[in-house]
């Protein structure tokens, strides 16, 4: 029997270490030195490096990378189990060298970069000496590459990029931008002349590329290969988002249960009120179902590839946003007025749920993808009625049973009696 839901003891020890490390060191750092990884203070930076060295010593640095790309090679299933822990703490992914958007960009560089490109950009990204952003979405085309207009034209020993990008997360603070053009993926240093970052929005930036010139060797992968690179990047990114979303849902659920057992209303703790119990039960079931689906999808990727698991990745992607929205809302509601403030993580979590349904492609696109791919495995029925039409099934059953009934008159007599009995009942 191949089914197994257990974690091997050696890896469970790793998970236990990660949990303790995050509770004792990462979470306090988040509150005392917010965004410590990007801090310009050399003293803070040195302390961050000390903590990151502990992660390296455990063999847990850049945990998202496969072994052939320079990572620990845990695979997606073990990565999912790790992300269930580090996704709970805002600063933990960066402390483990596994924070978006760098993770996806690092994967592209590791898979498609030349040795010179890896030396120039991959190593500094892995060491967090520089940071990156992914500039894909466009104002008029959303995340549909068939509608993109940003284009690069070769001019001598340079590429000249013109276009407009929208929702480039962390673009303002990135050192390099991975710009998806209609004819290729280009690495563009943020301070390149012609890169104009609009004042708003602050976090997911609107960027105009106006006659931006980069050397020829800033093309990543083959010319006209942007879609292939993007699928490689986004497939992994979507499942990783789902892994971390489970951690966020668990955090909201823990807060919900703690509050339900602590707050009193109408003479008893609110956990004894049936409506509160309903929200807790529904949240529990939603989280468990999402988690099992994410783990199964991660397992499928390990057994095949992100391309082969594309249907499930897309389904996980639109499911995670829905579950995060429902669970965080239930938790927010149970916490009452406190839940509407910024004094707990819930308000930000609930506000972020719609973003999760838009980032890396809107959920509606993924739903359409799932439907199209699933329908390939089905066929239309002939005639007016479906194959499960009971009169059809009954007729087919009699045909299949005929040899048996012919050979056994007693069974045939019973069959005729059954038929007469049910014919009377159907009148």
UniProtKB/TrEMBL annotation:
> Which key words are in the record?
FAD, Flavoprotein, Oxidoreductase
User: Where in the numbering of this chain does the Acyl-CoA oxidase/dehydrogenase middle domain appear?
Assistant: 133-201
- Domain spans labelled Acyl-CoA dehydrogenase/oxidase N-terminal: 11-127
**Entry GO CC:** cytoplasm
Q: Which cofactor does it need?
A: FAD
In alphabetical order, the GO MF annotations are:
acyl-CoA dehydrogenase activity; flavin adenine dinucleotide binding
| Record SUPFAM superfamilies | Acyl-CoA dehydrogenase C-terminal domain-like (SSF47203), Acyl-CoA dehydrogenase NM domain-like (SSF56645)
* GO biological process, alphabetically ordered: fatty acid beta-oxidation using acyl-CoA dehydrogenase
Key word Isomerase present: no
Q: Which residues form the Acyl-CoA dehydrogenase/oxidase C-terminal domain?
A: 229-375
Q: Which PANTHER family match?
A: ACYL-COA DEHYDROGENASE FAMILY MEMBER 11 (PTHR48083:SF13), MEDIUM-CHAIN SPECIFIC ACYL-COA DEHYDROGENASE, MITOCHONDRIAL-RELATED (PTHR48083)
The entry assigns this protein to a family as follows: Belongs to the acyl-CoA dehydrogenase family.
Tell me the subunit arrangement. Answer: Homodimer.
This one is known as Acyl-CoA dehydrogenase-like protein
Supply the source organism for this entry.
Mycolicibacterium thermoresistibile (strain ATCC 19527 / DSM 44167 / CIP 105390 / JCM 6362 / NCTC 10409 / 316) (Mycobacterium thermoresistibile)
